[in-house]
Amino acid sequence: MNNNGADSAKTDITEQLQAYRGEIDALDAQLVELLAARKKVTSAIGQVKRAHSMPIYVPEREAELIAKRRSQAEAAGVSGDLVEDVLRRMMRDSYYSQHANYAKVDASINNIVVIGGGGALGKVLVGLFQSSTYQVSVIEKEDWPNRKALLKDADAVIVAVPINQTTQIISELPPLPEHCVLADVTSVKLAPLDVMLKVHKGPVVGLHPMFGPDAPGMIKQVVVVCDGRRSDDYQWLIQQMLVWGAQIHQTLASTHDEAMAFIQVMRHFSTFVYGQHLQQENPNLSELIAFSSPIYRLELAMVGRLFAQAPTLYADIIFNNVDNIALLKRFHQRFGEAIEILESGDKASFIERFTEVENWFGDYAKQCLRDSKQMLLKADDGQLLRKAP
Amino acid sequence: MNNNGADSAKTDITEQLQAYRGEIDALDAQLVELLAARKKVTSAIGQVKRAHSMPIYVPEREAELIAKRRSQAEAAGVSGDLVEDVLRRMMRDSYYSQHANYAKVDASINNIVVIGGGGALGKVLVGLFQSSTYQVSVIEKEDWPNRKALLKDADAVIVAVPINQTTQIISELPPLPEHCVLADVTSVKLAPLDVMLKVHKGPVVGLHPMFGPDAPGMIKQVVVVCDGRRSDDYQWLIQQMLVWGAQIHQTLASTHDEAMAFIQVMRHFSTFVYGQHLQQENPNLSELIAFSSPIYRLELAMVGRLFAQAPTLYADIIFNNVDNIALLKRFHQRFGEAIEILESGDKASFIERFTEVENWFGDYAKQCLRDSKQMLLKADDGQLLRKAP
Questions:
Q1: The whole model's pTM is what?
Q2: CB within 8 A of B133, min separation 6: which ones?
Q3: A37, B27: Cβ pair inside 8 Å?
Q4: Of A4, B246, B314, B341, which has the maximum CB count within 10 A?
């Protein structure tokens, strides 16, 4: 083949690829139109649901919708996982675009007071109550002297102040109307519940919404509920959270607090130490990221995110409960013991202990591997820590 | 309104919702058809690219494609992030459906020998070379006595045996053809490179593919490249990995090994200790998961996944380099010091140290927060650890 021939062959390929890319572009343009059309329908559904106090997130409908499309996809030679991932991503969007349209579950309830409603979680709650057309008032520090007047007509009082002020604020509450629901949203439950039951004779419930300010609402998020008193009389609040999409997990305050030692204190504390360790070892961070496997980029992102947030929030969570220090000390000791195994070169003992943990995890280990694999693929899709900051 | 009226109103709503759901189903069915049509076009593109040795993953084309659809979406009132996420997910699928169609970059290269080609990473490499129509032979333990005959016509020898056998295997290599490329894919680079340079006079390169067997190939994955000798003569291998979609990160073996102390040893070791800690504290795992925030479920998944894998693999990585023990000991000491701060109740000192780490992370902290937020939303989309195992 002479040079002219090679050139024209090259032009042919370029043209051919260009044509295919045109087809892809046309299909992708159709995709955007389809998303726009779908949004119109889901908005209309949101309006109907709001008008009739129906929950926006219906797990059964979601499961059925996905199952139908998976089987259609597989029949058409398209990956079922692809279709499920795309649908779930679309549904997330449609849930949140219906955000402004939440139903109000009980017409007889009106006055909601959020103490600390200007904070991160407080704002989320205020927004949700307002979207369901409640009358919401916020009490901040400067309003505290007037609390008696501000609280006298309350149907529900939600305490959403920082963890280390919670019990103090509750103990300073004036008498509330007898029907009023008193609730807090702190990340410990035993102590606040105790004080709430003392200061108020009406319905009392301890809540812990298990999500940070990252979450754009309550959809699919766990809210832990610890009963205080007269659960029938705060059921409207539980129902309201279900309308907002929450997954309610009812438990004892003591069980909750024990679990939080792992879920919050242990996690935040070791992340803090890991960050300190990095800072003091001082590796080149951009070099480290350039090298990283998806799993390490994910870990680094989880460490780094802590330090983009308010230190006082984490100091409060970590310092709140001295009981947790013993748990941290046991971790510290185990870390030391594991180093000793490493130093002695005793690989057999390492493998033996590894297997013990594997057995303890049981079937969950495989589930973790399977689910985390999907997350790592998504980390790559989303270019996690791949763009310069 | 009498009861009949209420009943018929309810029927109306049910019918109305039913109609809307029908519209959603019709749109979702169109979506699946669209994905099937798109797959046909991307397969055709894959064939053209293979025939002409062109890379499948072209970052610029990807960026341009996404930018176009984002602006179309925003003009149509659809979230740009939604469209980008959906497109990236679709592209992942199309990259991998083209997997069987990789081009071969150099027609003069034929015989590839993968020593340890039956292992997890070995299999991935064998599959990739085969998909690019190389002649691939695998040498396993039982073939080792015949290595001289098996290696005499090799154009490239890739050592993919477990880390603790790597230098031994390399030192036992017979003389290779002078043009043959000798490479290893172990997770340390200094020692293997050293031995490779000793046993072979031709082109030598140390590689570290930064991904586990989770990754269904090399697309978008980092491969660390440490030069040994005669880089011009192994460029075809680098080019080949680029065709497979790799992101090449060239560096010194010493820099690589230092980074791996963090990325692999530190990470795997502390995950191991955390798993042990959980096992010994013995909380109710399903209760813990039921309680968990998305961020804790993600952490738990990352811990649990370790214990669904082979203990020897991690033992080898962790025990391989005694230099890393000092790094682990410093972490252990910092953990102890942080507990002391906690015990003394010195919140101010905690906050001060927190701020130091925040400053060390600099702009990366915000990037971590932003990127991890997307990951946590995806964790919820994907029901991470939400289904029973």
A1: 0.86
A2: B104
A3: yes
A4: B246
